[in-house]
Amino acid sequence: MAPSAGVLLAAAPSPTDEPPTPVRSDKARRRLRALLARDSATFARGWAGKLLVVAVLITVPVAMVLGSVTGDRYGRYADDSWKALLMLVVLLGSYLVTRRLLLTVIIGVVAVALASWVLAPNLATASNGNTEVLAHLDHQASMGMLAGYESVAVAEIDLDSTQPVRLAGIGADATTPMEVGSMTKAMTGLVIADAVRRGEIRMDAPVATYLPKLKGSPAGTVTMQELVTHTSGYAEFGGSILRSAAWKAPLGMNFFTSSDTQMTKEARAQELSGRGEYAYSTLGSAIAGQAVAAKADLSYADLMRTRLFEPLGMRDTAIEDDHALVEGGQSETGLPVQPWVMDGYAPGAAAVSTAGDLAKLATALLDGTAPGMSGLEPTTATDQSKARIGAFWQVSDWQTGQTITWHAGQTGGYASYLGLDRARHKAVVVLSDVANDASDLGSQLLADRHAAEG
Description:
Blueprint: H1 5-11, H2 23-36, H3 47-69, H4 77-98, H5 101-119, E1 127-129, H6 131-142, E2 152-158, E3 165-170, E4 178-179, H7 183-197, H8 218-221, H9 224-228, H10 239-248, H11 260-268, H12 282-296, H13 300-309, E5 318-319, E6 329-330, E7 336-337, H14 346-349, E8 351-353, H15 355-367, E9 380-381, E10 387-389, E11 394-397, E12 403-410, E13 415-421, E14 426-432, H16 438-452
Antiparallel strand pairs: 1-3, 2-3, 2-14, 4-8, 5-8, 6-7, 9-10, 10-11, 11-12, 12-13, 13-14
Helix pairs in contact: 3-4, 4-5, 7-12, 7-13
């Protein structure tokens, strides 16, 4: 039987009735409100929840620090540990204000990402100098080799060319002073080799012969030859450098401030467990340089000035051991970094130079007129295949058929590279005001010059 009209009217919904809210939508809103609610009103009411909050606030920056100290020989702590510090500060500050863990983590991630984007180095737009070198740099830029650079100065040397020295720069020029970092070791090696020629030292003599403060310690028995070839068994740095770096590096501060007395004390404590094996040591290079300076009765800065810089006309090159000679540079991630003014460790990384001055050095090394030329000759194998070492100078056999004598360097805010193709009378110098790996760009420029000859 058909239903009556009254039944139909009673069952029909009123036009003014609103449709029921879906249950799923209500649940989603409740979950979102719970996530954004103050933690003290939700999961952090008890001690377990509070401990979870503390664990998250600490674990995130700690994980970032652990990530920065793993990887290659150095890790990336000096470069990007500032991000972990920033994350810690933002997390603590945000949580104190919001009392919401999820929101706090989101704010921290956004803050670090934004700071990284703002600080990231960008290649300068102004260029100067030789058009041929600039064309080479443009080519490298097209391949992404200048990513991460800001200001860069380059010298290309070819003694067989009608114009032996060509200089150019982007954001910097041939007279812009920059820290050269560990390239200082290579310069020190030349002066050490020159001291041998002068009859002042012997490479087979224990270093304590020239640095009596090391007498009576295992470190004092190491020979000068072992020091300049990184086979002394010395650690890479003394403990004071590592302790200082732990808190100064994230703030962009100079942590190479150990005095000569402190460095000597740490050298005396060396156990030499890896003696005879190649292991790069800035501590060892610093001891070697200070030993030769002591034998010559000169400060290290005066030793380098009178024995290398002045003879080659390197008027804009000096040792940064008393006061800053440059403005601060940048870490690879863009953190502003103080100049590295040094004391005891000066022979390992304290030189400041220009592309123009390093072109003079490279020219003298190619034509054989530089002091200490014997320091370029390799005597010892390294930890790399097809690589040997002289007096700090690295000598590598490339797949291109070139044998390259070279050294690179970094400080907290600068990078450098000097490579010599001695057989073909060519060299390349790269200086950067960002602590990236300048050897990549320098090596490519040197290889390209070889390829261009066909």
